[in-house]
Amino acid sequence: MDPKFLLAIALALPLCAQVKITQPGKDKISVEIDGKPFTDFYVGPGTAKPYLHPLRTADGKVVTRGFPMVTDIPGEAHDHPHHRGLWFTHGDVNGYDFWANEESQPGAGKGKGKVVLERVDKFVAGKKSGTISASFAWKIPTGETLLIESRKMTFYSDPQLRIIDFDITLSPQQQVKFGDTKEGMFAMRLAAPLEEEQPKDIAEPKRTGKMVNAQNKTGEKNVWGKRSEWVDYSGQIGGAPVGVAVFDHPSNPRYPTYWHVRAYGLFAANIFGLHDFESDPSRDAGLTIRPGQPIRFRFRVIIHPGDVNGAGIRDAYEAWVATK
């Protein structure tokens, strides 16, 4: 076969891929699904922690808050500037805050940590899925590294859903304690229409959200601080019902996780916050790990049309955990 023909096929393959992943610059990696933008993964030196922003439905609706990356979206609350898209950090690691760690925020405890890109190991496009693998150092102000994070994110092609699988391993470089605080860990901040309650000082857009967990409990009062295998948070954007589900894998530490979910759109899974979640200062959900004792977390995020029942979230969870 003509070598020129083979080269033409090779060059055309990325264009045919249903999940296309590119790195337009040092600061971000872009993900496109079925010819449409899905999200960008921000990893540059100007970020205090890596994050995905924005996250979109299959038909292009943005389900995450724009602030602080975008400041002119009507109706958005400009609180919690550390709530950037979707991220993974914790508020107390050896006393350092890797959660509320923006430069604009005052430090507490021993100060603020920073999650720094070590390298992008690889990114791979594909017809059914694509992956990003990268390594990060969790650093404290002295320059010391507490943890090395190895992260693999897999993005799937689907006509109606947007699905991301996260596989994250934290390897301690010295003795590390995750302190007991609600400020963590696998998290996102949802768009204003998906919030549960209407802020008194913001008239539009209408807040339509409803959170539901695997035990069929609804609303912040019944879901916040409770353990559950999954939580779904859905509402309406532009008059169309959409939602976001987060699944906790049975192999994760302390499964099923506790949930730090708020009516104002914070959506987080966190196993390290018992004295907050149970309003009991005597409880300590801290965890100490040492070199050679890595911990691994796996999560799935599904962005879907419809509500929790219409999207079949319970069945989707069971199917996910049944896969090897």
Characterise this structure:
The chain has about 325 residues and is mainly beta. The protein has one domain (about 20-320): Beta-galactosidase, Chain A, domain 5 (Distorted Sandwich). About 10% of the residues lie in helices and about 40% in strands. The strands form four sheets. The chain has an eight-stranded antiparallel beta sheet with strand order 1-2-3-4-5-13-18-17, with no helix packed on it. Strands 8-9-10-11-20-16-15-14 form an eight-stranded antiparallel beta sheet, covered by helices on one side. Strands 6-7 form a two-stranded parallel ribbon. It is globular and about 50 Å long. About 40% of the residues are buried.
Summary keywords:
324 residues, Beta-galactosidase, Chain A, domain 5, 8-stranded antiparallel sheet, 4 helices, 20 strands, 10% helix, globular, disordered N terminus
**CATH class designation:** Mainly Beta
The secondary-structure element order is HEEEEEEEEEEEEEEHEEEEHEEH
> In what order do the strands lie side by side in the largest sheet?
1-2-3-4-5-13-18-17
Helical fraction:
under 10%
Strand content: 35-45%
Largest sheet: 8 strands, antiparallel
Any idea what the shape is?
globular
Radius of gyration: 20 Å
CATH architecture: Distorted Sandwich
Return the average pLDDT rounded to an integer.
Answer: 93
The residue ranges in which pLDDT falls below 50 over 5 or more consecutive positions are 1-14
How many strand segments? 20
Task: Provide the CATH topology.
Answer: Beta-galactosidase, Chain A, domain 5
Tally of helical runs: 4
